[in-house]
Design brief:
GO cellular component, one term: plasma membrane
Structural class: alpha+beta
Keywords: ATP-binding, Glycoprotein, Kinase, Lectin, Membrane, Nucleotide-binding, Receptor, Repeat, Serine/threonine-protein kinase, Signal, Transferase, Transmembrane, Transmembrane helix
Largest sheet: 5 strands, antiparallel
Subcellular location: Membrane
Order of helices and strands: HHHHHEEEHEEHHEEEEEHEHHHHH
Catalytic activity: L-threonyl-[protein] + ATP = O-phospho-L-threonyl-[protein] + ADP + H(+); L-seryl-[protein] + ATP = O-phospho-L-seryl-[protein] + ADP + H(+)
Number of domains: 2
Strand order of the largest sheet: 1-2-3-5-4
Helix content: 40-55%
Number of strands: 11
Radius of gyration: 33 Å
InterPro entries: Kinase-like_dom_sf (IPR011009), Prot_kinase_dom (IPR000719), Protein_kinase_ATP_BS (IPR017441), Ser-Thr/Tyr_kinase_cat_dom (IPR001245), Ser/Thr_kinase_AS (IPR008271)
Number of helices: 14
Distance between the termini: 68 Å
CATH architecture of the largest domain: Orthogonal Bundle
Strand content: 5-15%
CATH topology of the largest domain: Transferase(Phosphotransferase), domain 1
């Protein structure tokens, strides 16, 4: 920097002094003609020096400005401050974008052998990048209900969210006719892959299921209160819970998620999306959603994890669904009747009883009576906290009324 200033001063000094020299030598040439040749040489020399200095100044200016104006990196800040910064703050759209050719090579041109799942928005493939990193590639179908808005929503959301119980977004690909999301590869598929398969349920003993329940609750707490954004997932269900190689849960699929501002906790929509059975009554019937809608979905999830049954499963007598069956067994003083038979040898009765109680609190019809996600996490992690008694919900219908309700929701 000092050298740059010296060159600048010398260059400007010669530049402004040059007319004085020229004037001086013009006078000399009139009085002493023999100096004419030497003055011409001097002028050429001075001009050459000025040009050289100007070029040097320009080069120095180019490199200094380039250094000052380049983007600040994480390593720069570490050098300056001696500390690390949140990497999510440095994420840009460019840093997340993948070339289609790279994804095609990673998935063997989206081969059937690499296909690991299919959802409402498209097909998921396993891939391996040239670096050896395993990835999950979500290729959205052309007829997918998830358009550009939901696609961008999921990309922007996941890029900024960092939590061990949330699936990590590695990037995306936008090409003609293609919308692709690239995630970290989660080895053990989704929760429903194990939970509702009689041959795989045995892999989920009580300690594993309890760990999954608490992990999901922690992830949802992060979305509701601990991240920079307040996020309502709106599609929390077993197929959107991925399990890693240690059976830790990771919440996925944020295509339906909504950001709500500031202290706001609820909103309304005319476009009801999600999965029946997991949707709260106020959302399914009227389009009102809030953080308490996610709490309701979590309660349904907990009952499914404990029972090993889908929430739409019909129970005798009375043709009740899982929620009403759980309430009836609770009311009759037989809460353990809903437990999965595979849990008999590994169950912790105190933990199981608390989970059933918490789940029934979460699925209460009045959203004001449901606990916050912070309270859910606290109740799951502390056995000393007393639990409230859940209130019966009026949506415990007969099978016929449930079918009528499903049709009514589908017509909205």
């Amino acid at each position: 920097m000092f050298f740059f200033l010296v060159l600048l001063q010398v260059g400007f000094g010669i530049f402004f002094f040059l007319p004085f020299l020229q004037y001086h030598y013009r006078i000399g040439m009139v009085t002493q003609p023999w100096k004419k040749r030497s003055s011409s040489k001097l002028t050429i020399t001075v001009v050459a020096i000025v040009v050289f200095l100007v070029v040097c100044v320009a080069i120095c200016y180019f490199f200094i400005v380039k250094k000052w104006c380049r983007p600040i990196t994480n390593s720069d800040l570490k050098k300056e401050t001696g500390s690390n910064i949140d990497e999510s703050e440095m994420i840009t759209e460019q840093s997340l974008q993948f070339e289609l050719r790279t994804i095609e090579e990673a998935t063997n041109n989206f081969s059937i052998e690499n296909r690991i799942g299919e959802g409402g928005f498209g097909v998921v493939y396993k891939g391996i990048l040239p670096s050896g990193l395993e990835i999950a590639v979500k290729r959205l179908s052309n007829g997918s209900a998830q358009g550009s808005l939901e696609f961008k929503n999921e990309v922007v959301l996941l890029a900024k969210l960092q939590h061990r119980n949330l699936v990590r977004l590695l990037g995306f690909c936008l090409h003609v006719g293609e919308k692709i999301l690239i995630y970290e590869y989660v080895a053990n598929h989704s929760l429903d892959f194990f939970l509702f398969d009689p041959t795989k349920q045995a892999n989920l003993d009580w300690s594993t299921r309890y760990k999954i329940i608490r992990g999901i609750a922690r992830g949802m707490l992060y979305l509701h209160e601990d991240s920079r954004l307040r996020i309502i997932h709106r599609d929390l269900k077993t197929s959107n819970i991925l399990l890693d190689d240690e059976m830790n849960p990771k919440i996925s699929d944020f295509g339906m998620a909504r950001i709500i501002c500031g202290s706001q906790t609820r909103a309304m929509t005319n476009r009801i999306v999600g999965t029946y059975g997991y949707m709260s009554p106020e959302y399914a019937m009227h389009g009102h959603f809030s953080v308490k809608s996610d709490v309701f979905s979590l309660g349904v999830l907990v009952l499914e994890i404990i029972s090993g049954k889908k929430n739409t499963c019909v129970f005798q007598p009375g043709y009740t669904d899982l929620l009403c069956h759980a309430w009836n067994t609770w009311k009759n003083g037989e809460p353990f009747k809903i437990l999965d038979s595979y849990l008999v040898d590994s169950i912790s009765e105190n933990e199981a009883l608390r989970c059933i109680n918490i789940a029934l609190l979460c699925v209460q019809e009045d959203d004001e009576l449901r606990p916050s996600m912070a309270s859910v996490v606290l109740m799951l992690n502390s056995s000393s906290i007393p639990l409230l008694v859940p209130r019966k919900s009026s949506f415990c219908f007969s099978e016929k009324n449930q079918i009528d309700t499903i049709r009514a929701v589908g017509d909205t």
